[in-house]
Amino acid sequence: MIWTSGFLEVDNPDGLAPVVQELEKRGIEVNGTENDKIVFLIERETPAQVKAALDALKDIPGVRSVNLSYYSLEGSDEE
After folding, report:
1. Whole-model pTM over 0.90
2. Would residue 52 count as lying in a domain?
3. What is the enclosing helix (H) or strand (E) of 68?
Protein backbone atom coordinates (compact mmCIF):
# COMPACT_ATOMS: atom_id res chain seq x y z
CA MET A 1 0.00 0.00 0.00
CA ILE A 2 1.25 3.47 -0.87
CA TRP A 3 0.16 6.57 1.03
CA THR A 4 0.23 10.10 -0.26
CA SER A 5 -0.80 13.20 1.63
CA GLY A 6 -1.13 16.83 0.67
CA PHE A 7 -3.57 19.66 0.36
CA LEU A 8 -5.76 21.27 -2.25
CA GLU A 9 -6.48 24.96 -2.57
CA VAL A 10 -9.92 25.90 -3.83
CA ASP A 11 -10.92 29.01 -5.74
CA ASN A 12 -13.45 30.08 -3.13
CA PRO A 13 -13.77 29.01 0.54
CA ASP A 14 -17.53 28.74 0.00
CA GLY A 15 -16.77 25.95 -2.49
CA LEU A 16 -15.11 23.60 0.01
CA ALA A 17 -18.13 21.31 0.56
CA PRO A 18 -18.57 20.18 -3.07
CA VAL A 19 -14.84 19.47 -3.41
CA VAL A 20 -14.81 17.49 -0.14
CA GLN A 21 -17.79 15.46 -1.38
CA GLU A 22 -16.03 14.73 -4.67
CA LEU A 23 -12.86 13.62 -2.87
CA GLU A 24 -14.81 11.27 -0.63
CA LYS A 25 -16.68 9.90 -3.64
CA ARG A 26 -13.28 9.06 -5.18
CA GLY A 27 -12.18 7.19 -2.05
CA ILE A 28 -9.84 9.94 -0.88
CA GLU A 29 -9.77 10.61 2.85
CA VAL A 30 -10.26 14.22 3.94
CA ASN A 31 -8.28 14.97 7.11
CA GLY A 32 -9.31 18.58 7.55
CA THR A 33 -10.23 21.91 6.03
CA GLU A 34 -9.17 25.45 6.79
CA ASN A 35 -10.05 28.61 4.86
CA ASP A 36 -9.47 27.61 1.21
CA LYS A 37 -7.43 24.43 1.91
CA ILE A 38 -8.38 20.75 2.14
CA VAL A 39 -5.90 18.24 3.61
CA PHE A 40 -6.19 14.80 1.98
CA LEU A 41 -4.79 11.27 2.19
CA ILE A 42 -4.71 8.89 -0.77
CA GLU A 43 -4.11 5.16 -0.23
CA ARG A 44 -3.59 2.99 -3.31
CA GLU A 45 -1.90 -0.31 -4.16
CA THR A 46 0.50 0.90 -6.87
CA PRO A 47 2.46 4.05 -7.74
CA ALA A 48 0.50 4.27 -11.01
CA GLN A 49 -2.81 4.34 -9.10
CA VAL A 50 -1.50 7.08 -6.81
CA LYS A 51 -0.32 9.12 -9.79
CA ALA A 52 -3.68 8.73 -11.54
CA ALA A 53 -5.56 9.84 -8.42
CA LEU A 54 -3.27 12.87 -7.95
CA ASP A 55 -3.46 13.87 -11.62
CA ALA A 56 -7.26 13.73 -11.52
CA LEU A 57 -7.49 16.11 -8.54
CA LYS A 58 -6.65 19.16 -10.63
CA ASP A 59 -9.68 18.47 -12.85
CA ILE A 60 -12.19 18.79 -10.00
CA PRO A 61 -14.22 21.98 -10.53
CA GLY A 62 -13.17 24.67 -8.05
CA VAL A 63 -9.68 23.27 -7.37
CA ARG A 64 -7.00 25.92 -7.87
CA SER A 65 -3.90 23.88 -6.96
CA VAL A 66 -2.78 20.48 -5.70
CA ASN A 67 0.17 20.30 -3.31
CA LEU A 68 1.93 17.08 -2.33
CA SER A 69 3.32 17.02 1.22
CA TYR A 70 4.21 13.37 1.83
CA TYR A 71 4.39 10.04 0.03
CA SER A 72 5.51 6.61 1.10
CA LEU A 73 7.90 4.51 -0.92
CA GLU A 74 6.85 1.00 -1.79
CA GLY A 75 8.86 -1.50 0.22
CA SER A 76 10.53 1.16 2.37
CA ASP A 77 9.54 -0.72 5.53
CA GLU A 78 11.39 -3.86 4.40
CA GLU A 79 15.08 -4.48 5.02
Report:
1. no
2. yes
3. strand 63-71
